[in-house]
Structure to design on (540 residues):
């Protein structure tokens, strides 16, 4: 499972572009981090909302994949993001979780924290639906 | 207005990273395009969902800004995206529209189409809330 | 199709409780109205958000059903509602539309208007996902 | 606070129509229950999605109100609901929580469980935005 997700992640060029890395993989729970690169910002020089979306959506998708049969891949059907605070800090950390697995639909959430030294601040909350597709 | 939005857009480094450009600005309606760069893809080599989100959200935000007082800037409070089809083609085009302007909340939508030659296909639909903040 | 939807609607006791009625059924487009009954209100005596949700969701669901095989029924997987204005007037009218039909997921929207005499005001916008289930 | 919320709740006729009751009020956390009345059902005789929405949205709104100044009332700006399982059982219980309070926007979630005897099953998950309005 771990290998399968790392291999899929490595093929997502957007993740490299944004400097994202997998921090942890556990059943139903995947953590992805990304530095707030100079090229990932909005007009006030903090992380663009799309960075929180990108790593939150990806963490949630792989969390879903950990609970799917080996022959499956995963696609986002829909995702909602509430932005709670500016994405300022050393890096963003997204924790994706499965709320309800299913054969046709997997309901997921993700929390995105901005990390500055030892401080963590919740900056975005995502809730959405992943669908398994045959690989 | 046109100048103000182009200047704000130019300060969003994420837009340059993703190769996004403003195609049109009209009151309550902004169009942004982005090539599907080699670095903007997911594991099946089509556009990452975060690319549709990034340009859809940004087009919707600037559409809202066109109807705000000059002293305002705009922030995304929340955004929901439904992904309808893979983002495959020459480029993605996001059209952001204001559904209801307001002093405290501006309700917006965006459609994202994948463009291949003269063909356009709807690949994502966004609905969300923008809030004015003092510049 | 018309008969099948009217028969399903008649079995939804919530629709009777809320005084909802089918106004029109066309392929991919269903209209449902509801008076703002004395028992359907929130604390300021206008329509409760749940009334807009109830008829918007139901109109969108039946719009999806018009494009499904006869052996299907429809369930809401997820629905997002933005509330734009208080639901004040003679009645609410929800127009549900299919944005993208599909074998596994049907993407829908609904607009809810408050109607006062000949005036109509957009009070809610919904965007969501319907799934076909075998009857 | 407790008195203020109970008095507001009592003025929401929709809550009486649906048989909803306040079970608990704590800072940032409100619980509302509702029997699945004969008049609250969809075509398969389980709770209509609008019942989960109604009590989830209301629990989340009052959870937000517990953290607002006394002169405020609360309105739902937007709410997203994912439906996880049919609403079958003795009653539904909605637990609304504040994720992030704020002067202009309050981010909330709600979980809705179907309760059958001592068993509880998560049937819906909501995530949304409440706005304070002057009373």
């Amino acid at each position: 499972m771990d290998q399968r997700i790392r291999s899929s992640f490595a093929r997502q060029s957007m993740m490299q572009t944004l400097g994202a890395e997998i921090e942890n993989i556990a059943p139903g729970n995947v953590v992805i981090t990304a530095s707030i690169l100079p090229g990932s910002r909005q007009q006030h020089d903090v992380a663009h909302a799309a960075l929180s979306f990108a790593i939150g959506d990806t963490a949630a998708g792989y969390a879903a994949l950990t609970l799917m049969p080996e022959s499956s891949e995963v696609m986002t059907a829909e995702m909602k993001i509430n932005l709670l605070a500016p994405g300022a800090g050393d890096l963003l950390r997204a924790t994706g979780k499965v709320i309800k697995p299913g054969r046709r639909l997997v309901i997921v959430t993700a929390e995105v924290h901005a990390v500055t030294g030892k401080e963590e601040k919740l900056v975005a909350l995502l809730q959405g639906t992943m669908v398994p597709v045959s690989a």
